[in-house]
Automatic annotation (TrEMBL):
Keywords per UniProt: Membrane, Transmembrane, Transmembrane helix
Lineage: Bacteria, Bacillati, Actinomycetota, Actinomycetes, Kitasatosporales
Region (Disordered) location: 1-33
Record-given protein name: Biotin operon repressor
Bilayer-spanning residue ranges: 49-67, 73-89, 110-133
Length: 675
């Protein structure tokens, strides 16, 4: 049997153990409390900064009091802090021309910071020199508390003033999130920011989640549907100067452009920049049109359907030119009906397409005369150097700017040789101080003459100012404003109150905004046409233009007397010179009038009516034409007019009779001829 040894344990011999579940609990609690205190201190670091700074002063003063020369360290730290504060408050942050900081702190902040650093450093230095904080035996605890309270009041008041309130989500933003930015909305994941309420509705900035601002523009109609708005009440355009993801949105309760904007007068032109304020965008910002820029004049093309506002826009530009020393040459091929106020108010006015072609030949002559003169001209550049040969145009130094306006320009460009002439002028005339302004119904190729140069003319003209009022076809929107996501053909003809939208459109100019604008409306263009003096070209230019220019006033006087003026022999230098081409009767309007007059001379109706009465029975149109010596077309038109007057009756197809003989039987020969 094995031997068993029994050992008796004494409780005092065993080490004391903590109760179950309590091992290290005190140490853990202390660690957690310290971490919690650090987190609270970090979260309250801004508001409690003065108290933390006071505690740091007390600790620093006590620590630096231990060594004998600790006060020297405190003094050096105070000096360094003061120097840093001065640099922070007074150095503008420039190294050469490079600016390192946007702005200096406010004067009050600088004074408060300098006071805190110097007085606080002085307290630490004094404590280091006299034995530390010494609670109960020195005034330092009270001084530290006073320092903390004094600077803390300024700190807390400043923080209260600058703290920005957290804005509540606006109604527009909430609607956007719920309807547009939602997964099944028109722009999923997008954001609406910077919402501002305006007098006409509200504006904001759309930030697309993917893609660029064109994605927002393309979804304009869907966004209007998501927001339960009429499509015409919403405008989206590129956010200028911001990220490509951002688009500006404007929502109208009432379109601000609906009210007619009166033309303020010729002072709209800023002669220092060459730009004129010609209207307003929907947000009230001015729309600019460039007459010239430092490199020379700016060509222009204007598009717009009937009643789009082209003529009133031209009235405004011509009035601005007349009262700002710009020479205006105008061609109105519609017989002068589009721009009648300027017939006697500009330097040169032509009211036929042939006259416009003669004007273009004169423009080219002036262009080469100026070019030859400028190439040898002496001038002083911006650095004070005297140079020869100027490669750019300076307005009124020494010659005035010449602005050539051709309304219904397709009438002129359809003439033989005109497209090549216009392209030559557009490409070369800017350096010579000549600008071309072409006006069309639309930007189709046939408007530019259907010539090899037509596309080049359109591209060159559209590289300057392009003004596009309401057009008639969606197919031409991208042609008139290439690269722009706008649709002038969708502009309404009438506002909801049934008033005209004339002058509403888009303008590609110095602003480069793809947004609707409305041109100023000149209610009284005759006022600007009859006041002031008419600017004219310089003598050297007038001398080379020939009789087409020198006899312009005689032709105008003849036109006012009701006569038909004839262009001189030299009107088409280097071009066709046959008399038929020079005669204004070859103008389409004159041709049509002459054809009607030749086809239906005076007394045609009376002659046909007398023939029917004498014939005594129904007769065919061909017989009437043969017997009277008139054309069949003239007889047909005369019979229609007589029928409306009750003086002729159509008894059968092509068979006519006097009302008294309508019941008489026609000859079988007449019936056969009519058939």
């Amino acid at each position: 049997m094995p031997k068993t040894t029994t050992v008796e344990k004494i409780p005092a011999d065993e080490p004391t153990r903590p109760a179950a579940g309590t091992r290290g609990s005190s140490r853990k609690r202390n660690t957690k409390a310290a971490r919690r205190a650090l987190r609270v201190a970090y979260r309250t670091r801004r508001g409690m900064a003065p108290l933390y700074a006071a505690a740091a002063q007390a600790i620093a003063g006590s620590v630096l009091a231990m060594p004998d020369d600790g006060w020297k360290t405190a003094l050096a730290a105070t000096a360094a802090g003061a120097a840093t504060t001065v640099a922070w408050g007074r150095w503008n942050g420039r190294i050469g021309k490079k600016r390192l900081r946007r702005r200096l702190p406010r004067r009050a902040d600088f004074i408060a910071a300098a006071s805190a650093v110097t007085t606080g450093g002085g307290l630490v230095t004094a404590m280091a020199a006299t034995g530390g904080l010494q609670p109960g035996h020195s005034p330092y605890p009270g001084l530290v508390a006073a320092w903390s309270l004094g600077h803390g009041i300024y700190w807390w008041r400043r923080g209260k003033k600058t703290a920005a309130p957290v804005p509540a989500l606006s109604q527009q933003m909430q609607l956007w999130q719920d309807n547009v930015a939602c997964p099944d909305g028109s722009l999923p994941g997008s954001r609406l920011v910077d919402v501002v309420t305006t007098g006409y509705g509200w504006t904001g900035v759309v930030i697309c989640k993917r893609g660029n601002w064109r994605k927002a523009y393309a979804a304009s109609a869907d966004i209007a549907g998501d927001l339960d708005l009429p499509e015409e009440s919403l405008q989206i355009e590129k956010a200028m100067g911001q990220s490509a993801k951002r688009a500006t949105i404007a929502v109208f309760n009432v379109n601000p452009l609906q009210e007619v904007i009166d033309h303020p007068g010729p002072q709209i032109l800023d002669k220092t920049t060459g730009q004129a304020k010609v209207g307003l965008f929907y947000d009230g910002e001015p729309a600019h049109y460039a007459f010239w820029k430092p490199s020379g004049p700016v060509h222009t093309v204007v598009y717009g359907a009937t009643d789009g506002g082209k003529s009133r826009f031209l009235d405004m530009l011509l009035g601005t030119e007349r009262h700002n020393g710009i020479v205006s040459w105008v061609c109105d091929p519609q017989g002068g009906q589009s721009l009648p106020r300027w017939r006697e108010a500009v330097d040169w006015y032509e009211d036929t397409a042939q006259g416009g072609l003669a004007m273009l030949y004169a423009v080219r002559t002036v262009m080469y005369e100026r070019s030859a003169r400028y190439s040898m001209m002496e001038f002083v550049d911006h650095k004070g150097r005297k140079l020869r040969g100027r490669d750019h145009f300076v307005v009124d130094d020494p010659d005035p700017l010449i602005s050539v306006t051709i309304d219904e320009a397709h009438r002129v460009l359809n003439l033989q040789g005109a497209p090549a002439l216009v392209l030559e002028i557009i490409q070369m005339a800017r350096k010579c101080g000549i600008k071309i302004r072409l006006v069309f119904q639309g930007p189709k190729a046939n408007m530019f003459g259907n010539a090899p140069e037509s596309t080049d003319i359109r591209e060159q003209a559209q590289s300057g100012n392009t003004v596009m009022f309401r057009t008639a076809s969606t197919l031409t929107d991208s042609i008139g404003l290439p690269g722009w996501d706008v649709n002038p053909s969708n502009l309404p003809m009438y506002w909801p109150d049934k008033t005209s939208t004339a002058g509403l459109g888009y303008i590609k100019g110095p602003d480069n905004r793809q947004a609707m604008f409305r041109a100023y409306f000149d209610r009284d263009p005759a006022h600007w046409a009859t006041t002031g003096t008419t600017p004219t070209v310089e003598a050297s230019a007038a001398a080379v233009t020939g009789k087409a220019y020198s006899e312009r006033l005689e032709r105008l006087a003849a036109r006012l007397r009701g006569e038909t003026p004839v262009l001189p022999d030299d009107a088409f230098t280097d071009g066709p010179t046959d008399a038929a081409r020079r005669a204004p009767s070859t103008d389409p309007i004159a041709q049509a009038a002459a054809a009607i007059e030749a086809e239906a001379p005076a007394g045609t109706d009376e002659k046909v009516a007398a023939f029917l009465a004498e014939r005594g029975r129904p007769v065919g149109r061909n017989t009437i034409a043969q017997e009277t010596g008139l054309t069949v077309s003239a007889v047909k038109n005369a019979l229609t007019r007589l029928k409306n007057k009750g003086q002729a009756v159509a008894v059968d197809r092509g068979i006519w009779a006097h009302p008294d003989h309508a019941n008489t039987t026609a000859d079988t020969t007449e019936l056969a001829d009519a058939a």
